[in-house]
Amino acid sequence: MRREVRWERMFPDELEAAYDECPVAYLPYGLCEPHGPLNALGNDGIRSHETCILAARKHGGIVCPPEYWHCHEIGGYAVWGHKQIGNQRTWLTAVPPWIFLKNMCYHIRAMDALRFHATVIFSGHSGPHRKDVPVIIETMQPHVDTQIDWFVSSGTDTDHFQDGDGTGGHAGRGETSQLWSVAPDCVDLSRYPGPDAERLLFAMGQFNDRASRRVGDAMTADVVERLSARANALMADYSPKRERPLTFGDVEQIWADEIQPKLKDFASLQQGDEAPPEDSQWRTNWEIPASFPG
Fold this sequence. Notes:
The protein is α/β, with parallel strands linked by helices. The protein has a single domain (about 5-285), classed as Creatininase (Rossmann fold), CATH 3.40.50. The chain has eight helices and six strands, in the order H-E-H-E-E-H-E-H-E-H-E-H-H-H. It starts with 11 loop residues before the first helix and ends in a 35-residue tail after the last helix.
């Protein structure tokens, strides 16, 4: 029987034992979004969650419940969505970046309050926000004892294919192969569109006819070792100094004083020069608000 490491499925004595053995928290993030007709919509979050589970089972730690509400629909995300998805129903679980990033502050606060020595944030969904998350971590780190790091694996950063054609970009054979590795019931190659398809293929990338579960296993094993190496490095740097954990009010103050003034410069909140057409569903949230909520 494989050891349970999923927080939501563990009993209190199991959580305490796992914490005593290895006080590392894995925070998996993803997004339900189009990944072609052959992949489940939760590709990003499923991959991150399942890969964290493999890392915790092999090297120790506790895996937090996955967070599927992530950045999309705004600014450059909307331009991409118009080109890759069009006016089909998107099935997105999207929130604006300032909601996603503030939630991350609260997630970090929770890990610190539970006295985890290390917090590894792992996202299967990439985009402009990958430049903003380090700012959140750099801002929060002086206020907490838990040591934090951020890792993104969108299925394009590790390539074990041997033909030199690469991973195929978003929802290409890299992401498909990794999803096939960790959740084979979420990939159905029989749904691969025929050569005569004349429509947007729901944001599908390239070379999915050459996706490989075996290659996906190698890619996933690579990511597992990267996650574990990050966790070990963070554990070595842990040195508790604070008398009490942050309160919710503390987080709100940090957000107001240290993060919100920087939002206008965040990569995820840049509108750019290109816009979706007026008749595109992506035009609705493309424009960046003049003042940011939060």
